[in-house]
Design brief:
Layout: E1 4-8, E2 14-16, E3 42-46, E4 64-72, E5 76-83, E6 87-94, E7 96-101, E8 106-110, E9 114-118, E10 123-129, E11 136-143, E12 153-157, H1 161-164, E13 169-174, E14 183-185, E15 191-193, E16 202-207, E17 212-216, E18 222-226, E19 229-233, E20 238-242, E21 245-251
Parallel strand pairs: 13-14
Antiparallel strand pairs: 1-20, 2-3, 3-4, 4-11, 5-10, 6-9, 6-11, 7-8, 7-10, 9-12, 13-15, 16-21, 17-20, 18-19, 18-21
Length: 254
Amino acid sequence: MASKFLRIPAGRLGVSEPESYMFGNRPNPEPTPDTWTNWNWLKSRFHFSFAEYFNPANTNFGVLRVLNDDLVQPKRGFGKHPHRDVEVCTYIVQGYLTHQDSMGTVETLSRGAVQYMTAGTGVMHSEHNKHAEEPLRFIQIWITPRSRGLKPRYGSFVGDEEGRKSKWQHLVSDTESGAKSEIAINQDVNIHVAELHGQGTQLPFVVPAGRQAYIVAIEHAVTVAHAEGNAVMDQHDAAEVVGPNELLFTANGE
């Protein structure tokens, strides 16, 4: 397969702002509180077909089935709901995420943390922003597992700011790869995160032949040099990359 770099501008993502009752929340307060950063309790950006956003040409990228960028306002969240036969990884960008599940887990995580859940034969869980004033933003990722009917499990990594400061932090890898990462799931995937500090800071990343990568500019803007040229990725932009491709990320701001 030939190398590829396809930038996906934020304007092409699906955007959802569902009514509060759909997830067990109280109605939005009126007027909107000063502590809220959006008029609605939830604003989701869908990178692939999900819920009311359906695009038959955009349902997945390899085993990456879902990538949702969720902004949840204070004292709101997703009530208890089921999953099965999916690997769920969640990266917290801002605020505090409180997770509770049918395996008995109760945990609150903050910026830079990642949690995972092997839904397997079935699990119920809820995800809430219980903070009274601070919004919550997180990236939720669904990976199709290599096999069905796995035993449900949950785990997390609380985050390490120095570990991702202008370098790649290996958050997630495959249980069968033997790679050193904070979390391992049941599929041949890797998740890396980096925060580039200082305008002009550069960081390389190599996508080998036979591999592919999905990039998200979570915060701020970055220029990515790739096999076909250069691409400026603004906040919320994404890119599909097929190797072989040597990438060079350059921070466009502080």
